[in-house]
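Quick one, tokens below. Sequence please?
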């Protein structure tokens, strides 16, 4: 009932009824009154004619009684005047006509003596008005009935419309929210029905569009989240629009990123900020190298592009972490430099002594043999560097991979001991084979023997005359076996310990070269052992000796 549609419908119906009835009332009342007046005039005129004729046919001296008698019969007032207009008789003497409206008619006739008389018949218009009023009353009663009917029709119509409109409204408001998407009832072919159908079509299209957008954004989100590159999008005020997990990891952002947080609150990196600002100012893409203190000094190749956002232009940065690449590149460069350096010394010696011999030293019987021996030693050195490099590169490239097998540690240790025996004897170093338990490990035979041999050779090479090398094999834990090689040699300075497994690293270069070392032995050991899922540990005391422990998983 509160519905404004109902009120509007009601008011317009009432207004229409009032206007129609007002007009009808006006014309009908006037018409009725006129009609009544005309009828009265016609009656009076007929009566006047008849009375005039009657007076001529039956002249009478007693005009007073004649008018009274005939006035009663004709239900009018009858007045008689002489030729000059003087009243001679009146059915209602003394009454004036001034109070009411009257209809009257005059007829000429003759008196008994032949003198002209005027006969006037008059009747009040009261009856006419009463008839008009009766008409008006009927009109009013009809109007009231029509108004009640209009109220009822307006109420019923508006209730029907209202229900359908409320239904459409609810549908329009909730069709996207889950569960509430009930289609409106479309049971009519009127405008509301067609509006409902349009809404339904529109809702289906919007639902499909939203679904497509959701899918698209989920797909994009998945791609961006799984990207190895850090992705960061900011608006023109450097507020973060989004950033992916890789970016958060790189800049150590642990909390979840609140919407539109200022980038400064998240990452304090002047380099990144400068680059973003430049792209925001120029609108041009940018690709630069970025070394970021905020990201633990890691290096990035940063590609920054302008981004159109709802609030203007922004920027999107894609950070490709090249720290490892740079490190590998550096390692490669160092390696090449080291290899060249290592090769240069023996090559220079060979070239130099060959020239000396060619320039006449060949005839020098006292020295020529010595020179040739030097040349031979350096050639041997070149050969061992080459073979060590080969072994190392084989290990790194994963060649000779194959599945690890069950290897007897005892056999591997004995084989290595046998090989090193001659060298130990030459240097007067005693090898003590301690507690060597019969254990089997999962390993590659060649790699394992090579690693053990390298460790034993070092223990002999960097030992003192009459020194000792002690070897044992023990079960260090329920599923691990350890080969422990202890020597009584020079020992390794504490600060050098972390570096001895690097390629070409030697604590004492001169000494290493003198004993025929290449600086690659321990790198090979480390590689070989790690490839077999093992570990290598070292302890050392300068001047006292070193202890290398190889730990391997038991088969
Ligand atoms: P090298 O070919 O020079 O032996 P390694 O990689 O095998 O190269 O060893 C690296 C360096 O570690 C050696 O030059 C040496 O200074 C030191 N080192 C290795 N093993 C021992 C050891 N048992 N005692 C003392 N120093 C050692």
């Amino acid at each position: 009932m509160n519905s404004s549609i109902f009120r509007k419908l009601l008011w317009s119906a009432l207004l229409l009824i009032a206007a129609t009835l007002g007009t009808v009332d006006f014309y009908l009342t006037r018409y009725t009154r006129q009609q009544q007046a005309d009828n009265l005039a016609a009656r009076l005129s007929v009566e006047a004619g008849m009375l005039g004729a009657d007076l001529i046919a039956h002249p009478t001296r007693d005009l007073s009684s004649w008018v009274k008698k005939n006035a009663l019969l004709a239900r009018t007032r009858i007045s008689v005047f002489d030729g000059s207009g003087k009243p001679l008789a009146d059915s209602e003497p003394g009454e004036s006509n001034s109070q009411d409206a009257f209809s009257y008619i005059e007829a000429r006739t003759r008196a008994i003596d032949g003198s002209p008389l005027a006969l006037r018949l008059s009747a009040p218009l009261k009856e006419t008005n009463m008839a008009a009023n009766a008409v008006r009353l009927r009109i009013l009663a009809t109007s009231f009935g029509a108004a009640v009917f209009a109220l009822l029709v307006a109420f019923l119509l508006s209730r029907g419309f209202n229900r359908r409109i409320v239904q459409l409204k609810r549908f329009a408001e909730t069709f996207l929210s889950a569960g509430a998407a009930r289609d409106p009832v479309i049971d009519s072919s009127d405008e509301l029905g067609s509006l409902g159908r349009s809404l339904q079509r529109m809702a289906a299209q919007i639902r499909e569009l939203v679904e497509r957008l959701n899918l698209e954004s989920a797909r994009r989100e998945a791609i961006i989240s799984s990207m190895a590159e850090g992705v960061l999008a900011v608006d023109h005020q450097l507020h973060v629009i989004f950033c992916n997990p890789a970016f958060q990891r790189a800049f150590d952002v642990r909390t979840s990123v609140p919407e539109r947080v200022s980038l400064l609150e998240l990452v304090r990196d002047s380099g990144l900020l400068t680059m973003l600002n430049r792209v925001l100012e120029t609108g041009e893409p940018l690709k630069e190298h970025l070394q970021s203190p905020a990201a633990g000094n890691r290096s990035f190749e940063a590609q920054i592009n302008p981004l159109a956002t709802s609030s203007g232009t922004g920027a999107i940065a894609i950070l490709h972490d090249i720290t490892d690449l740079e490190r590998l590149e550096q390692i490669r460069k160092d390696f090449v430099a080291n290899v060249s350096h290592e090769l240069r010394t023996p090559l220079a010696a060979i070239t130099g002594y060959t020239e000396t011999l060619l320039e006449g030293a060949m005839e020098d019987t006292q020295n020529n043999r010595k020179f040739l021996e030097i040349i031979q030693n350096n050639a041997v050195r070149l050969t061992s560097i080459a073979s060590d490099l080969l072994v190392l590169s084989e290990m790194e490239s994963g060649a000779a991979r194959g599945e690890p097998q069950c290897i007897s540690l005892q056999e591997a240790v004995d084989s290595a001991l046998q090989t090193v025996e001659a060298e130990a004897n030459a240097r007067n170093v005693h090898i003590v084979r301690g507690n060597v338990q019969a254990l089997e490990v999962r390993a590659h035979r060649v790699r394992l023997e090579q690693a053990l041999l390298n460790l034993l050779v070092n223990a002999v090479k960097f030992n003192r005359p009459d020194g000792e090398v002690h070897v044992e094999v023990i079960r260090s834990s329920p599923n691990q076996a350890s080969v422990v090689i202890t020597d009584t040699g020079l020992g390794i300075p504490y600060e050098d310990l972390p570096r001895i497994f690097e390629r070409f690293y030697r604590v004492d270069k001169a000494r290493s070269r003198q004993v025929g070392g290449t600086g690659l032995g321990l790198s090979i050991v480390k590689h070989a052992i790690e490839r077999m899922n093992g570990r290598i540990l070292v302890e050392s005391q300068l001047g006292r000796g070193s202890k290398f422990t190889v730990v391997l998983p038991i088969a």
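The mean pLDDT is 87. The longest helix spans residues 4-57.
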